[in-house]
Design goal:
The structure holds 2 protein chains of 2 kinds. Chain A is globular. By secondary structure, chain A is mainly beta. Chain A is 0% helix and 56% strand. Chain A contains no helices and 11 strands. Chain A starts with a strand and ends with a strand. By secondary structure, chain B is an all-beta fold. Chain B has no helices and 11 strands. In chain B, 35% of the residues are buried. Chains A and B meet through strand 9 and strand 10 of A and strand 4 and strand 5 of B.
Chain lengths: 115, 113
Amino acid sequence: DTEVTQTPKHLVMGMTNKKSLKCEQHMGHRAMYWYKQKAKKPPELMFVYSYEKLSINESVPSRFSPECPNSSLLNLHLHALQPEDSALYLCASSQSGRLAQETQYFGPGTRLLVL
Amino acid sequence: DQQVKQNSPSLSVQEGRISILNCDYTNSMFDYFLWYKKYPAEGPTFLISISSIKDKNEDGRFTVFLNKSAKHLSLHIVPSQPGDSAVYFCAASARRSGNQFYFGTGTSLTVIP
């Protein structure tokens, strides 16, 4: 089983709203990732959690707040977003984030539209 | 600075023929390379990978070739099928950079029946 699930599939929110994106995996992976992908662009790394600790934060604005409640779950809390934050948000997981040559497995993404 | 590049944004191939997708990289520290396939409105699906200690890896209809001296890798799909129509991303990582993935910009493959 190489499934990573993400909810919701689609989200429309206003600039004053607070919402959360959720990601779940049951592969026993200990590293989880958030990416942002704009149309016709490659995925851009936002955050990496390894063993439930934030290990990489790629200078993402504070209006994005990640949370890793346990090794299977990853949340991305959104607050006061801007229209330019509209994108496909992808979650991925890998074995540990510490081994060489790990493969990342991606979820289907949440398509976010900020009005 | 784009460390992984896919210079062909699109490719069309007749069904049954070979599809060759190319990827170039600039960072000589990369030691792991992967290809992902992405359908619209879906997340990337892992296809095949290759370690820098190899120059070829094969999995069914998919073969990845790595030329380290040229910093170039390619994905061959033989025979191509209409269901292969998707966007293909190559990605690279280096152990020294914490296994962070660097993605290319993608190549949209259309297989014509």
